Amino acid sequence: MALFLEFLAQEWILTLALLVVIVMLVLHEARKSGPSVSPQQAIGLINSEHGVFLDLRDAADFKQGHIVEALHIPAAKLQARIAELEKYRDRPIVLVCKMGQQSGAAGKQLKAAGFSRVYKMTGGMMEWGNLQLPTVSKS
Q1: What is the C-alpha to C-alpha distance for residues 91 and 123, in angstroms, rounded to an integer?
Q2: Residue 68 near residue 135 (C-beta atoms within 8 A)
Q3: What is the set of active-site residues?
Q4: I want to staple 118 with a disulfide (CB 3.0 to 4.6 A). Which of 10, 34, 58, 86 is the partner?
């Protein structure tokens, strides 16, 4: 460990360059999957531009509670069911998952399929619930 710290101290320029490259890579990957929006911004997009919430959680989580009129396509089945989103190609699609972590991969898939207005909701349904925004559940 002492040798590693000595290396970092002596080669601080290389260490700094490595950190810059890592930050740039993370930002680039995040940008490829679509910008992030807060739940309030997502509601504004959906209401003003007739977009749709796309819930990526599994069926059990979706039945426990989801956003009103959200489409449900589990993340694992998105590639096979992407045709169902064709009518929303030019409208905002806000991706919703459990905590905002899985929507990045789904965003990349949609962008690769030609969907240009893809957004990730930060915090997912966890943040939605924390803000006490309305949900519906299927019995």
Answers
A1: 22
A2: yes
A3: 97
A4: 34
Count of beta carbons in the 10 Å neighbourhood of residue 94? 25
* Tens of pLDDT, residues 118-135: 999 999 999 999 999 999
What is the number of alpha carbons within 13 Å of residue 19 lying toward its C-beta? 7
Q: 66: which DSSP letter?
A: B
Q: Are the C-beta atoms of 95 and 117 separated by less than 8 Å? A: no
Query: For residues 24 and 16, is the Cβ–Cβ distance under 8 A?
Result: no
Category of 129 on φ-ψ map: left (φ > 0), alpha (ψ -120 to 50) or beta = alpha
CA 97 to chain centre: 7
- Encode pLDDT of 35-57 as tens digits: 889 999 999 999 999 999 999 99
Residue 35: the pLDDT is 86
Find, among 48, 51, 30, 57, the residue nearest to 120 by Cα. 30
The two structure tokens encoding residue 5: 């710290």
pLDDT digits (tens, 9 = 90+) for 90-103: 999 999 999 978 88
Query: pTM to 2 decimals?
Result: 0.78
